[in-house]
Structure to design on (61 residues):
């Protein structure tokens, strides 16, 4: 059974079989819906400040 993942950056749902999986040295698995999200995550951008993410405007944390 495939588990649904969410993009670590923009917060959108990923269909099974889509997106980019990134595994950290400590074994944590991170999912990204696109290279764009992966790039922005690596640049330590705040998704709450980017209009194209689902987290835009979110006030949680
Ligand atoms: Zn994304």
């Amino acid at each position: 059974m495939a588990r649904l993942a969410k993009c670590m950056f923009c917060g959108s749902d990923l269909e099974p079989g889509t997106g980019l999986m990134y595994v950290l040295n400590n074994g944590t698995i991170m999912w990204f819906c696109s290279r764009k999200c992966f790039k922005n995550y690596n640049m330590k951008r705040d998704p709450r400040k980017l209009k194209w993410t689902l987290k835009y405007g979110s006030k949680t944390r």
About this structure: Residues 7, 9-10, 12, 32-34, 37 surround zinc ion (CB under 6 Å). The CA atoms of residues 8 and 26 lie 16 Å apart. The first helix runs from residue 35 to 42. The first strand starts at residue 5 and ends at 6.
